[in-house]
Amino acid sequence: EAKIEVLNGPHYFDYYLLDKLLERVNIEKKLPRALTEGEFELHYQPKIDAATRALTGLEALIRWNDPELGRISPASFIPIAEDTGFIVQLGEWVLWEACRTNKKWQDAGYPKLPISVNVSAVQFRHPHFVHMVKHVLEQTGLDPKYLELELTESLINNPMMIKEKLDSLKEKGISLSLDDFGTGYSSIYYLKTLPLQVLKIDRTFIQETPSSQRDSSLLRSIIELGKSLGMTVLAEGVETEEQFKFLQEIGCDQIQGFYYSRPLDEQAAEQLLRTATCKEDLVLHESTCK
Ligand code: C2E
Ligand code: MG
Ligand code: MG
Ligand code: MG
C-alpha cells in the first residue's frame, strides 16, 4: 500500500487523465449547441440477408463533426450525453431524422425497408419515451412497421418495468431488437418473455471466427438459441468473406459489417437503395412468379 502511495503521490501528476477530464467537460458543454447548430448527421449502415445478400434494412448511426475538434465518435460522446441527460433530446432528434429520411425515401419510390434507431437505456427510461415515438411516427407519416428500435442489454436490469413499454411499442407495430448481444447479462428467461424480434450478436464474437474454435462454436450456440426463441439472428461487425461464408453456413439470418458496407452518408445510402437488390424486390418477384 505504501508503494502505491508513493507512485500516486502529489508529486506525480497525471496529465493524461487531466486531458481526458478537460475533453469531457468540453464535449459536455458543446453538445447542446452542436444540436442547435446542426452539427449532427446520420449515416446509414446496411443490413443484408445472409442467404441472398438482399438489403433488409438500414441502421442509423449518429455522426458529429465539431468545427474545432473534428469528427468525434459516438462511442465517446454518447456516454457523456447519457450522463448529463442530454441523450433524451439528442435521441429524439435522431428518431425524427431517421423517420423523416426513411419516409422521404419511400415517397420517392425506393423499396420500403425498415430503419433501425439505437436507443439508450437512459432515453428509454424517460417516462414520455413511448409517447414521443408514437408522436414522431404520426408527424412524419412513417408506417411503424418500417421502424426498428435497437436496445441494449443494460436496459434489461429491470425487465418487468420495461416489459410494459416494450409491449406497447410492439403493439403499435414497431420492431424491437437486442443490440450487442452477449456483452451484457440478459437471461434466457428475459429473452423469452420480452417482445424482441431480432438478436444482434456483438461483433466481439465474430472477430475471431472461424479461426477460433471456441468463438465459432459459441456463435453456433447463440444462433441456435436465438432461433429457438423465434428471433431473427443478425451478426454485427462482419468484415471478411470468410466470416460471411461461415455465418451463412451455420444459419445466421442477417449480417451487417464492413464486409458488405461501412455506414454510408445519406446520399450514398440513397444511391444504394437505387441500385441494390432489396428484400422488398425479392418479395415482389416471388409473388409475380406465383
Ligand atoms: P452499435 O449500435 O452496436 O453500432 C455498430 C458500430 O460498429 C458502429 O459504430 C459501426 O460503425 C461499427 N461497425 C459496423 N460494422 C463494423 C465492422 O465490420 N467492423 C468494425 N470494427 N466496426 C463496425 P459507431 O457508428 O461508431 O457507433 C458506436 C456505438 O455508438 C453504436 O454501437 C451505438 O451503441 C452508439 N450509437 C451510434 N449512434 C447512436 C444513436 O443515434 N443513438 C444512440 N443512443 N447510440 C448511438
Ligand atoms: Mg446498433
Ligand atoms: Mg451493436
Ligand atoms: Mg455497440
TrEMBL record:
Superkingdom as given in the UniProt entry: Bacteria
Occurrences of domain EAL (ranges): 24-277
Designated name of the protein: EAL domain-containing protein
UniProt organism field: Paenibacillus woosongensis
